[in-house]
Write a structure and sequence with these properties.
The structure holds three protein chains of three kinds.
Chain A (H helix, E strand, L loop, with lengths): L1 H14 L14 H12 L17 H15 L4 H12 L14 H27 L8 H14 L3
Chain B lengths: L1 H29 L2 H5 L1 H24 L6 H6 L6 H7 L4 H22 L5 H25 L23 H30 L4 H32 L10 H26 L3 H24 L12 H25 L14 H31 L9 H21 L10 H7 L1 H17 L7 H24 L7 H10 L2 H25 L2 E8 L3 E4 L2 E12 L3 E12 L2 E6 L2 E5 L5 E4 L1 E4 L3 E12 L2 E10 L1 H19 L8 H15 L1
Antiparallel strand pairs in B: 1-10, 2-3, 3-4, 4-5, 4-6, 6-7, 8-9, 9-10
Helix pairs in contact in B: 1-3, 1-7, 3-6, 6-7, 6-8, 7-8, 7-12, 8-9, 8-10, 8-11, 9-10, 9-20, 10-11, 10-13, 11-12, 13-14, 14-17, 16-17, 17-19, 19-20
Chain C lengths: L1 H24 L18 E2 L9 E2 L8 E6 L4 H16 L4 E6 L3 H11 L5 E5 L4 H5 L7 E5 L5 E6 L4 H16 L1
Parallel strand pairs in C: 3-4, 4-5
Antiparallel strand pairs in C: 1-2, 3-6, 6-7
Classes of the chains: A mainly alpha, B alpha+beta, C alpha/beta.
């Protein structure tokens, strides 16, 4: 039942215009508002699951927007504001997961993948360019080759 | 009656597919020409059956036959005709039928255009196509029958989600599916080649046009989806790294890599097992996307109504298709003949380097998309992986790829001269660095994001590098202009295709960078008659009127927009309430200029004569769409290349034979 | 070595398949609370019109209690309401209510009409500081708080008789020992 309701909430949030903060919620000080917006964009709307609270229409997202702005106005640092929300909802609200032991695979994975792929690439090139490589060209051959290339263009 | 015919046609299609999946395969194994020859007619019959089923459901939608459950749930008699038609694929069952129909169309196309294929390869490829069809037909018949009746029929339907009632989204799924299903062709060829144990230049030449077609459809589909998000979600975002978006992006990355590695197979007879793998993976990602969207294992803003039973079925299908092909790959690929010499500094070396980066990129997107599921399954807690993760990991991976994209095409095959190429790219390099520096200064140094300068520099580098390559080919400035133009007109179409696609990507990068970095926005309570200025555009709210659409009521704001005191445009954003189902939707008013989009959204009424308005200037967004269009155009131009016309060599041979016979 | 590389795709698929099978059984929408086994947040909420008391943290100390977040606007709250009334009848555990994002008059009327299962109700108007302090994601949500005022359990969604019998009651009995 709850799942179905959550789904309804999502659909409603989805079908409604998905918009940023209302003018009434916004802070007077543009610098503070900009900070709040930036913080909000990193926080997940818990009801609609895939959007940040800044882009969601759900009531809870609106509340969290207001609370983020209250904290900013009260003089909290960005880190403190994020900490405030994380203390209540856990790391799940962070759209950018923090670097921790349990996200090691997530953050390290792409680099491991890249290193592995480059490693295979290097081995591949070593084998394929060294093994069957013909003897280097003599200066005379290079000169002739250049002439030929100039002649035929580079297509 | 018609719905029952459709249902029956699907059952018949299953029977035909079973024959098509087995007989030609056995025939090819035994060298029995008659059995192999059955594949073609079977594919035609398959198309006819599925086509009848599709036409039957379409008939039910067009005539608003609410005795069909699927129509009653997803359509409404008041809907404009376009959305009655689009309603067919705006739901799980109908979209699955579209999937199967496109699969049958591709089978038919292979039969029609594959006249010059070796009979064994053709029979096997069509048999593999039919195996996929068997899986999906079983799926639709047993879990997702779109022809179920409703008794008694309701007076009217439930209507289509208003979000889907939009031209951008009406055509988004068909293009996406043309892309996804299109990759099944490369897949079938790959499996057929693995069974035969032979991959050669000719194989690559047959696979490329199909891959290219799938790629350009998918590119088009993704761009349409993105464009739709941009103008309906009402704040100018165009990509969210949502699981469903990622599901369409992964096959695109794999398909793009495949497109390039197939060139290496064709020209250099190398990278065969890698290309085969990419062909399997590209289609595998398409199936994975289907699973993710329809099973509910991930949370997403735009998943279909999900159902674990269906999820289990697709998972089974996915495992059967991919497990089978990867096992076959593990067994047969090692015995594929290795290519010859392969130097890192060569055209093929650059293509391989970019392939590796693209594969890593696809792997990264896969990891990020699945990580919430992985962490949850391992009891590591709930994790969100959103846009900030992808932006900070995926984009840096792609930067070196873009750098290499300008260099690669200038390197010659076999043995390139990097120093020489870099020498020829001096101008591009200098301009890119100067451009990045200019951007840095213009945005006030570190007042703007650092990556804006990097992104614009990369875009400039790619654009100029691509143009340099074109200039080299036509020997611009080194020959008289006339001769250069003549050379240009004789360039192979595939060369033009590459130039257009790479240039298009440069525009896309520029658009993405600028719109992310320098968007201007203003959100306020605006009184009638009040003027708000955003990025030099003065928006005066002159009226808010009630207007009526075919199936919605709307509030329509009228903005008189001027720039530098001169009238620029009248913009009319709407806030709509659809009648059935009763849901709100925004219709942003957008005016494109060369430098960016002027974008206005009407919000709620905030008081007497006061409305919440959201006004934006989204810099260079039109460049993104133009770039995507260029990429698609590049694909089309390349597809029209003589060498890709599959029937061409056969016809030439036939003509020669006819001439010989005459003589 | 080279053979192994060719086996890699099928191995990766195998691992992914295990995750997908597990994934089909899990609900990605379910978000567990991070507040379990931490003290209930400090709250000091106003009373509904016509009620004598609001709700403060001190109310939650001294004996095991249930904190229920509800609202008169919330459809599934009406669904769990009869169960809450029945629980009140048994006298096993006091239920404290937090009327979340509600109009005070509507909230009071709603309780008058449907019956009031709550020992005390605190009003938490938008943006719902107290409810956010409890890490609320939607209504209804219920927490079991032990004698020391520590949150020991969270239930998301309506409390049905079945949920009460199998999930909440055993937990409460255990904490009451």
């Amino acid at each position: 039942m709850r799942k179905a309701l959550a789904l309804c909430a999502c659909l409603l949030a989805l079908s409604g215009p998905v918009l940023a903060a209302d003018p009434d919620e916004m802070l007077k000080d543009p610098a503070q508002e900009a900070r709040a917006e930036k913080i909000g964009q990193g926080l997940r709307c818990l009801v609609c699951q895939s959007e940040s609270i800044e882009n969601s229409n759900a009531d809870l997202a609106r509340d969290l927007r207001v609370i983020v702005r209250e904290r900013v106005k009260a003089g909290d640092s960005d880190r403190q504001v994020v900490g405030y929300v994380v203390a209540r909802y856990g790391d799940y609200v962070l759209l950018k997961p923090p670097f921790k032991a349990r996200t090691l695979v997530l953050w390290g994975g792409p680099f491991a993948l890249l290193l592995g792929a480059l490693g295979v690439l290097v081995v591949f090139f070593r084998r394929r360019s060294a093994a069957g490589s013909p003897p280097p060209l003599t200066p005379e051959e290079i000169r002739r080759l250049d002439a030929l290339l100039k002649d035929s263009g580079n297509s | 009656m018609i719905a029952e015919i459709g249902h029956f046609a699907l059952i018949l299609a299953l029977a035909v597919a079973l024959v098509q999946a087995s007989v030609p395969l056995i025939g090819a194994q035994r060298g029995n020409a008659a059995w192999m020859g059955l594949a073609g007619p079977a594919a035609v019959a398959q198309f006819l059956c599925v086509g009848i089923a599709f036409a039957a459901l379409m008939h039910a939608y067009v005539t608003s036959d609410f005795s069909v459950l699927n129509v009653a749930q997803n359509s409404h008699s008041l809907k404009p005709m376009l959305y009655k038609v689009a309603g067919l694929w705006g739901n799980h069952e109908g979209s699955l039928l579209l999937w199967i129909t496109i699969l049958a169309v591709f089978g038919l196309a292979l039969t029609a255009f594959g006249g010059n294929l070796p009979p064994g390869l053709k029979a096997r490829a069509l048999a593999v196509q039919a195996m996929i069809a068997v899986g999906f037909l079983l799926f639709i018949l047993f879990t997702s029958n779109p022809f179920l009746r409703l008794d008694p029929p309701p007076m009217d339907g439930n209507g289509l989600n208003p979000m889907l009632q939009d031209p951008g989204l009406a055509f988004h799924p068909p293009f996406l599916y043309l892309g996804y299903v299109g990759f099944s062709m490369a897949f079938s060829f790959a499996i057929a080649a693995l069974i035969e144990g032979r991959v050669d230049a000719a194989w690559a030449r047959w696979v490329r046009p199909w891959t290219l077609a799938a790629w350009l459809f998918l590119t088009c589909g993704i761009a349409l989806g993105s464009w739709w998000a941009y103008y309906t979600l009402g704040w100018g975002g165009w990509w969210y790294w949502d699981p469903v978006e990622n599901a369409s992006f992964m096959p695109w990355l794999a398909g793009t890599a495949l497109l390039h590695s197939a060139v290496v197979v064709e020209k250099r007879d190398a990278l065969k097992s890698w290309t085969i793998l990419l062909a399997i993976v590209a289609f595998g990602f398409s199936l994975l996307g289907t699973f993710l969207v329809r099973s509910g294992v991930l949370t997403s803003v735009h998943a279909f109504a999900t159902d674990p039973a269906r999820g289990a079925f697709i998972l089974l299908l996915l495992l059967a298709v991919l497990g089978g092909s990867f096992t076959l790959y593990a067994v047969r690929a090692p015995s594929l003949k290795l290519g010859g010499l392969f130097a890192p500094l060569s055209r093929e070396g650059a293509l391989l380097f970019n392939n590796v980066l693209m594969a890593t990129g696809a792997g990264t997107v896969l990891l990020g998309t699945l990580y919430p599921l992985i962490a949850d399954a391992l009891n590591l807690g709930k994790v969100s992986v959103g846009a900030p993760f992808f932006n900070s990991v995926f984009l840096p991976l792609m930067a070196p790829m873009v750098v290499a994209m300008a260099i690669g095409p200038l390197l010659s095959w076999k043995r390139g001269d990097l120093a020489g190429v870099l020498g020829r790219l001096k101008f591009a390099l200098a301009a890119a660095v100067a451009g990045a520096a200019a951007v840095w200064v213009a945005q006030g140094g570190s007042a703007g994001p650092w990556w804006a300068a990097a992104g614009m520099g990369l875009a400039l580098w790619l654009l100029l590098g691509t143009l340099t390559e074109l200039a080299e080919r036509v020997r611009l400035f080194r020959l008289p202009l006339g001769q250069s133009l003549q050379r240009a007109s004789h360039l192979p179409r595939s060369a033009w295709g590459m130039t257009l696609a790479h240039g298009g990507l440069a525009l896309v990068i520029a658009g993405m960078t600028a719109s992310s970095a320098w968007k201007s926005e203003s959100v306020q309570n605006q009184k009638l008659g009040e003027t708000v200025t955003v990025a030099g555009y003065a928006f005066t709210l002159t009226a808010v009127n009630a207007v009526k659409g075919p199936n919605y009521d709307a509030q329509q704001a009228v903005f008189q927009v001027s720039k530098d005191g001169r009238p620029f445009a009248e913009m009319r954003p709407e806030k709509r309430i659809f009648i059935m189902p009763p849901r709100p939707a925004t219709d942003a008013a957008i005016r494109g200029t060369l430098l960016g989009d002027v974008y206005a959204v009407l919000g709620d009424q905030a008081g007497d004569g006061v409305w919440v308005t959201r006004l934006y200037f989204n810099p260079m967004v039109p460049w993104m769409w133009a770039g995507a269009a260029l990429m698609v155009l590049g694909g089309l131009v390349s597809l029209s290349d003589r060498r890709h016309r599959i029937g061409a060599p056969a016809r030439a041979r036939a003509a020669a034979a006819a001439a010989a016979a005459k003589a | 070595m080279r053979r192994l590389l060719y086996l890699l795709p099928v191995l990766v698929l195998g691992v992914l398949a295990l995750f997908f099978m597990k994934g089909l059984e899990m609900d990605p929408h379910e978000i567990p609370s991070v507040l379990l086994n931490t003290p209930a947040p400090a709250i000091n909420l106003a009373a509904l019109p016509g009620h004598d008391h609001g709700l403060t943290t001190d109310d939650l100390k001294g004996r095991v209690s249930v904190v229920d977040i509800f609202g008169s606007w919330c459809v599934s709250c009406a669904q769990e309401h009869p169960t809450l009334l029945a629980i009140k009848e048994t006298g096993i555990v006091p239920i404290y209510g937090i009327d979340w994002r509600d109009d005070p008059v509507k909230g009071a009327e709603w309780l008058k009409k449907n019956g009031d299962p709550y020992e005390r109700v605190g009003l938490d108007p938008a943006p719902g500081h107290a409810s956010v302090d409890f890490g609320v994601t939607g209504a209804p949500e219920s927490f079991i708080v032990d004698k020391g005022g520590i949150i020991r359990w969270k239930h998301i969604g309506p409390i049905t008789p079945e949920v009460w019998e199998t999930e909440l009651l055993p937990k409460i009995r255990e904490l009451q020992k």
